[in-house]
Amino acid sequence: RGVMGKHSKNAGGKGAEAPTYAERQMFGYGTHRERLGKDALLPFDHCSLTLSPLEDPVCTPEGVLYSRAAILENLLNQKRRLKRKATQEDAKKKEELVAKAAEEQAHAAKRLKRFEQTNFGGGGATNDDDGGGAGKPSKLAGIFWLPSQAPDQSDERKTEAAASKKETTTCPITGKKLRLKDLIDVRFTRVPESQQEEVQQFMCPVSRDIFGPTSKLVLLRPTGDVLLESSYNTAVKPEASYRGVPIQETDVITLKAGRNTGFAHANNVEASKSYMVGRGSGLADLRGQGGSAPSRFALSM
Predict the structure, then answer these.
(1) Residue 173's Cα: distance from chain center in Å?
(2) CA dist 12 → 6, 16, 25, 288, 289 (Å)
(3) DSSP secondary structure letters along 82-132
(4) Are 123 and 134 a contacting pair, CB within 8 Å?
(5) Is the pTM of this model over 0.70?
(6) For 99-133, what is each residue's pLDDT tens digit?
(7) CB-side exposure of 260: number of CA atoms within 13 Å?
(8) Which end of the chain has the least Cβ crowding within 10 Å, N or C?
(9) Which residues contact 40 (CB under 8 A, 6 or more apart)?
(10) Axis-axis angle for helices 154-164, 68-116 (nearest 10)
């Protein structure tokens, strides 16, 4: 009887060429995951555009930190691109209007010609568009309820939709609407020089704890101070004020930790990718119908 399993016995049957689960795993099918190291995560005090330490930091309403010069340059480039696009669209609209006017003029000339032929030429109403020539009566004349005779409003609807959807500058990371006046000044509290290490460090102004890679930080919009989330919950939130400035829950912005560096997205520290046809060379033969020689599906990756 041999040692082969049922799957191998049925491999020659039509429609039974699919590999087993173990063979699919060895060939690279499915979803593969890998946990990323700390080097793939952006430190809290680095710009999301330049990936370098923050200089004159600002924050978006979604909690993304940028260096002021970097985000201003990005928004300016976006405005220039949108202006060029608007100019091109205006020129295209003008060309369409000129072409439409010429088409309407041609139709008016045809209608005038049919009118003259009907009233003065004695040939009756004609339909030049159907290629019937003079003297052929128009079968569609006066049938205004037919779809082909109705005015075309698709262009007007497209124009209205484009006018209602006005493009604006967006955040490079989140893709949400971002304007210059939406940026919020950020003020970090530096660690005293006597406690400083080789690298620049910041701390919570309330608890005096030094910020670390895993610290959960919040920004107070009215003052621009950055605090630990635990310090805000215990000291600021119950009093609803900080240094005499009223603080509401809507004024608190949670800063994005472990922001995107190109290797890790947002706060995810695990990367995954799905393969529908496997990561192999693609040279393996189908077993059974049309198969040649032994199967090579069991190649280990």
Answers:
(1) 10
(2) 11, 7, 22, 4, 6
(3) HHHHHHHHHHHHHHHHHHHHHHHHHHHHHHHHHHHIIIIISS----GGGT-
(4) yes
(5) no
(6) 988 988 888 888 888 888 887 765 554 444 444 44
(7) 10
(8) N
(9) 261, 263, 264, 269
(10) 160
